[in-house]
Amino acid sequence: MTATDTIFAVSSGAPPAAIGVIRVSGPEAARAVEALAGRLPQPRRASLAQLRDSDGALLDEALVLWFPGERTATGEDLAEFHCHGGRAVLAAVERALAALPGLRAAQPGEFTRRAFANGRIDLAEAEGLADLLSAETELQRAAAISNASGALSRVVEGWRERLLGLSAQVEAALDFSDEEDAAGLPECFTWNIAALAEEIGEWLARPRSERLGEGFRVVLAGPPNAGKSSLFNALVESEAAITSPVAGTTRDVIERSVAIGGVPFTFVDTAGLREIGSDEIEAIGIERARGALGRADVVLWLGEEGLGPEGAWEIAARADAPDFAGKMTARHTVSAETGQGLAGLKEDLVGLARERLPRPGEAALNARQHARLSEAGRALEAAQGLSDLLLVGEELRRARVAFDALVGRATTEDMLDALFGRFCIGK
Fold it and tell me: For residue 373, what are the β-bridge partners?
């Protein structure tokens, strides 16, 4: 398999469906259209055609689109067959394409990889597209589409242009450093580096995009029979945890991911916290519960008032119970049985999560991008403390290399394999 192969795949999702789109990309795309449709339609105009195999058998009546040249989604000749979306129809058209010389089925992410290789998108945009395809909540969609549309790439390109200007000033100062009337670096040079480093620092301080995938982590904690599992089930709106009046029913950490108000959450139900479990299994559950507290974004404390972890929300649960005792500092009073207070608790959690997670529509860095931008930031910080122009120039070069790696001007095949392997076939 090479980048010069002509590839094809269903790119409209799994059949059956009303319409099934088969995409073809590569140097043999025009010949593939002529072989199946009998003619090459006008570029970029949908044309109705009967698709036939090499024996002349009718496969389907479909709309055919032909996109020649470099200004296509993949940066090469591209065609699409908009067929009826039944499994048998799409399979028959794919068989006819596979029988043509020079054509083969596409690998996962291969269309997008060609778009990257041909300069139609950069690496940050490709990563945003991968996140967009896997987005399950409104916040994930908004952040992913910002990156996929090039928001981060445009910012990085602007930084790179400013950095090139600073590097040019250093080179000019070095070229004329032996002359008596050499002017040296302008007074604003150090300030400009500091300003660029500050902007990068602001981006590095933003919440990372992985938080959107993991969800805002809410841990319910307290002693046995405090109502944790009942509240957990009410929050995730399913009977995920077993509820019972018997102390120690929850023996392990139970997690469920849900979206509330377009915000991703991971709710965690834990074993009742007490000094000594009734048996070894419960003791393990209690230890895991304590570990879950350390990974929480917020803890809902259902135990005795004032005994929860620092910063925990005091929750007065089981408000419907005959023996209910409220809390003086309760942030919320709730009943999983009647639904009392649940809407207010959810609304409060959504508000907190929106403060901690990337803002809607704001581009967010993933782990790889954060690492590359951190390298650029460190290089700029180092440049500010140097007086030797050669060393300053080297630090600016390091920052530029980091920018190039971020958007994919410099990268490795292993990393590309890992990224594009996340895509489905046909994308």
Answer: none
Q: 37 is in which domain, residue-wise?
A: 6-117
HSE at residue 365, side-chain half, CA atoms within 13 A, is 20
Its pTM stands at: 0.70
| DSSP class of 157 | H
The three-point CA angle 100-103-105 to 5° equals 120
Backbone torsions φ then ψ of 369, nearest 5 degrees: -65, -40
Type of residue found at 249: T
Strands, sheet with 298-301, edge to edge from the N-terminal-most edge strand: 254-260, 263-269, 216-221, 298-301, 313-316, 332-333
113 and 37 fall within a common domain:
yes
Amino acid at 362: E
Distances (CA, A) of 69 to 22, 42, 60, 97, 126: 19, 13, 27, 21, 21
What is the total count of domains within the chain? 3
Q: What is the pLDDT of residues 157-195, one digit of tens each?
A: 999 999 999 998 888 888 765 554 445 677 788 899 999
Tokens of 38: 């009998």
Q: For the chain, percent helix, then strand, then coil, each to nearest 5?
A: 45, 15, 40
Q: Where residue 391 sits, what CATH number does that domain have?
A: 1.20.120.430
Q: Could you tell me the mean pLDDT of each successive run of 10 residues in the chain, 427 residues long? A: 83 90 96 96 96 96 94 94 96 97 93 92 89 82 88 94 90 68 68 94 88 86 87 81 43 80 89 55 59 84 90 92 90 94 95 86 87 96 90 94 88 62 69
CA distance 303 to 289: 14
Residue 93 forms part of a structural domain: yes
Q: Can you say whether residue 310 is alpha, beta or left, with left for phi > 0 and alpha for psi between -120 and 50 degrees?
A: beta
Q: How far is CA 278 from the centre of its chain?
A: 43
Instruction: Give strand pairing partners of 67.
Output: 78
pLDDT tens per residue across span 125-166: 998 888 888 888 788 888 888 888 999 999 999 999 999 999
- Give 114: exposed, middle or buried? Use CB within 10 Å, 0-12, 13-18, 19+: buried
Instruction: Identify the CA nearest to 45 among candidates 21, 67, 25.
Output: 67
3-state SS, residue 213:
helix
Between helices 138-148 and 123-134, what is the axis angle to 10°? 160
